[in-house]
Specification:
single chain; about 200 residues; alpha/beta; 5-stranded parallel sheet; binds flavin mononucleotide
Amino acid sequence: MIRIAIVLGSTRPGRLGKAVADWVSSRASERGDATFGVLDVADFRLPLLDEPLPPSFGRYSRPYTKAWSEAVDGFDGYIFVTGEYNHSIPGALKNALDYLYKEWNNKAAGFVSYGSSGGIRAVEHLRGVAAELQMADVRAQVALPLATEFENYRTFIPTAAAESSLRTLFDQVIAWAGAMKVLRPDHVHGKEDASAA
Ligand SMILES: Cc1cc2nc3c(=O)[nH]c(=O)nc-3n(C[C@H](O)[C@H](O)[C@H](O)COP(=O)(O)O)c2cc1C
């Protein structure tokens, strides 16, 4: 079964991202073609990147890096839930992405964003970051404008259009997450097959 993580990227008290991630998680639980988990960046308490070696070495010294690495590594693809901060993604999400490297490689990525303009500018930045981390980003995107999807700019009430966009996003991320598996060393060398035998 394909494993997809819903990554909640904002960490501030009162964040709207929690309600959005809860919605994604609730709709995910209705699907039978993948399993899902939520990775809330706030839970990992990552300080600004303080590992001495570049993440591509994969030699981590801090307990929180090891915990974050183990959590991220367990998935085949990611759905990033992000608000828009100054036309980009929250610093906490960028920092969390920077902490790791191989864990993200050759996996699928999709985006659910929100903000005045639906968070689309944040996702344009995030697509560039995902490319450098060797993630395959799907075309479908859920963009939630604060004016139409959040009552009084606070209470999240997704429209039918948002529900439909989310279904398409799931379809694309799950399909590409499956397709990317053959590129990963544990698959190529048969480790997954051996452990299943
Ligand atoms: C530091 C900061 C910068 C923001 N910059 C933008 C922006 O450039 N464009 C936008 O549409 N909304 C912007 N907003 C509004 C956020 O998109 C909105 O507050 C959203 O709820 C933030 O996500 P969060 O609630 O999960 O933290 C900004 C909010 C913050 C806190």
